[in-house]
Specification:
The protein is mainly alpha-helical. It has a domain of about 100 residues: Four Helix Bundle (Hemerythrin (Met), subunit A). It is built from 6 helices and no strands.
Length: about 180
C-alpha cells in the first residue's frame, strides 16, 4: 500500500468513528432525556378504585370489596356487552348491511353496559351511605379525580373552548347577550 491509500483509510476510519460516537452520544441523550422525565411524572390514578385515597385504609378496603362484589355481580352484563360488541363488528363487516339487526345489537350492548354501570354505581352509593359527612366530602373529592365522575382539568379561568361556547344555550353564551 502506498502513502495515499493509508491516508484515505485513516480518514475513512476517522469519519466512521466520529459517526458512531455521535450516534452513541445522541442515543444516550435521548435515553436519559425521556427516561428522566417519565420517572419524575406521577402515574395517573384515574381508576375508580383510587377514589378513596383520602380515606383510611379500612375504608379503602371496604370500598374495594364492594366494588369487586359489584363487578362480580355484573360479570354476566359485561359478557353480554362484550358479545354484543363482537356482534356489532360482525354485522358491520357483513357483505349485506342489515340496519335493523345492527340497531338491535347496539341496543342490546347498550342495555348490558347500562346494567353493569348501574351495579357499580349502586355499590358506590351503598358505600357512601356508610360514610361520615367528612368522609363523604373526601370521597366526593376523590371521585372528581378518579372514575366515571372524573372532572376535566380546569381550563384557563374565564375561558371555555369554542365548541362548548357554540353548544351552550343562549342564556349561558355571553356572546348572545
Amino acid at each position: 500500500m502506498n502513502d495515499r491509500s493509508w491516508k484515505m483509510l485513516l480518514a475513512g476510519s476517522f469519519v466512521l468513528n466520529v459517526f458512531l460516537l455521535g450516534g452513541i452520544a445522541g442515543g444516550a441523550y435521548q435515553w436519559f432525556a425521556t427516561h428522566g422525565t417519565a420517572a419524575k411524572a406521577p402515574p395517573l390514578r384515574t381508576a375508580l378504585r383510587f377514589a378513596t385515597d383520602g380515606l383510611t385504609p379500612e375504608r379503602q378496603k371496604e370500598f374495594l370489596a364492594g366494588l369487586k362484589e359489584a363487578r362480580r355481580d355484573g360479570r354476566d352484563y359485561a359478557r353480554e356487552a362484550r358479545d354484543g360488541r363482537h356482534e356489532v363488528l360482525a354485522l358491520l363487516a357483513a357483505p349485506q348491511f342489515d340496519r335493523p339487526a345492527l340497531d338491535a345489537a347496539l341496543q342490546h350492548t347498550r342495555d348490558a353496559d347500562i346494567a353493569l354501570r348501574a351495579e357499580v354505581e349502586s355499590s358506590v352509593a351503598d358505600f357512601a351511605t356508610r360514610l361520615t359527612p367528612e368522609e363523604r366530602v373526601k370521597f366526593a373529592d376523590g371521585l372528581k379525580q378518579a372514575g366515571q365522575w372524573r372532572e376535566a382539568p380546569p381550563a384557563a379561568k374565564g375561558k371555555r373552548p369554542a365548541s362548548a361556547q357554540a353548544n351552550a344555550p343562549a342564556s349561558q353564551n355571553p356572546a348572545s347577550e
